[in-house]
Design goal:
Largest sheet: 2 strands, antiparallel
Structural class: alpha+beta
Strand order of the largest sheet: 1-2
Distance between the termini: 43 Å
Strand content: 5-15%
Number of strands: 4
Number of helices: 7
Number of domains: 1
Radius of gyration: 16 Å
Shape: globular
Order of helices and strands: HEHHHHEHHEE
Helix content: 40-55%
Oligomer: single chain
Length: 145
């Protein structure tokens, strides 16, 4: 199905144009600015960085935690707002990067990140951090200027 037919189908069926998870995954693959700094700063494999960036894209597009965001349909309007707020805007891209760093350490997607001792693979209790969600799906965060 060509793109125009898909969008017409989405409008008729859902009342809005949807972005598929495959399209978001392709966006991340083709947007190194969404994941390359993770690879450089954390020294983790490229594909792991892309996976975290994809997960954070879903979270920020929907305003939901990652386990819920995976099953949520995302409208083109939501995804375009995400791109403008978190990819194109320098302050937003910094927040996106920070969320990705946190997301890398939140292995079970429960909002709690833990540093792991590489010699024992056990979590280091003093290095447990929590991410506090303060932004809803229709309320992008305000970046101080």
């Amino acid at each position: 199905m060509i793109q125009a037919e898909k969008e017409i189908h989405d409008l008729r069926t859902y009342g809005e144009v949807l972005v598929t998870h495959h399209e978001i995954h392709n966006f991340v693959e083709k947007t190194p600015s969404a994941w390359a700094m993770l690879e450089v700063n954390l020294g983790v494999p490229e594909q792991d960085c892309k996976n975290v960036a994809y997960r954070v894209c879903l979270e920020l597009s929907t305003g939901l935690p990652s386990l819920q965001a995976v099953d949520k349909e995302i409208t083109k309007r939501q995804f375009e707002r995400f791109k403008k707020t978190y990819i194109e805007d320098p302050k937003g891209s910094q927040e996106f990067f920070h969320r990705c760093v946190f997301g890398f350490f939140d292995k079970d997607h429960n909002g709690v990140g833990q540093m792991v001792d590489s010699t024992t693979t056990r979590a280091i209790p003093a290095c447990t951090i929590r991410w506090q969600q303060t932004v809803g799906p229709d309320q992008p965060s305000e970046h101080p200027r």
